[in-house]
Amino acid sequence: MGKIKSTDEPVGRMAKLMAELHYFMAKEMIDRLGEEKGKEAVRSAIRKFGEARIESMLEEVHEKGLEISPETYARVKDMPSISWESDPDNPCDITYCPMYDMWHQLGAEDIGALYCEIDSIMYDKFGIGFERPLCKTKGDNCCRFLVGDKKH
């Protein structure tokens, strides 16, 4: 199984634990329901999880009297960026992700990729355009986050 140590940075450790939990739950759904129905169930759960997170974030936006924007999203996002590392020359490229690290240790990049779909849900529900042409779970050397105005 994946390696997590009590001395690891706390946010990264929690991200790895969350990734490991996702792995076991998603794998169980896929094993019990079959590949197609299992992945459909995982995607549905991830979508509902993303929507619940966004609802809470939007509530905070309204409580603070802020406008919805990419800058506001960054201010109220619920998952800290500590432990994720980006390329200093291209900050859109995430070169280290503790969640991917866990899925890679488990040999479960394909199951991790199902979780990564949450990013599209999060940005979309916040009205922000998002593309990820590169993703570590797909074998790329980074996750490239292209965020901007939503294209209609």
Question: How does this structure look, described?
Answer:
The protein is an alpha+beta fold. It has a domain at 10-82 and 98-127. It contains 6 helices and 5 strands. It has a 3-stranded antiparallel β-sheet with strand order 1-2-4. It has a two-stranded antiparallel sheet with strand order 3-5. Strand 1 and strand 2 (90-96) form a beta hairpin. Helix 2 packs parallel to helix 6 and helix 4 (98-106) runs antiparallel to helix 5 (109-116). The radius of gyration is 16 Å and the shape is globular. The model has no long low-confidence stretch (mean pLDDT 93). This is L-2-amino-thiazoline-4-carboxylic acid hydrolase. It holds the Pfam family ATC_hydrolase. GO terms for molecular function: hydrolase activity.
Short recap of the structure:
The chain is of the alpha+beta class and 152 residues long. The chain has helices at 10-33, 35-63, 70-76, 98-106, 109-116, 118-125, and strands at residues 85-87, 90-96, 128-131, 143-144, 146-149. It has a domain at 10-82 and 98-127.
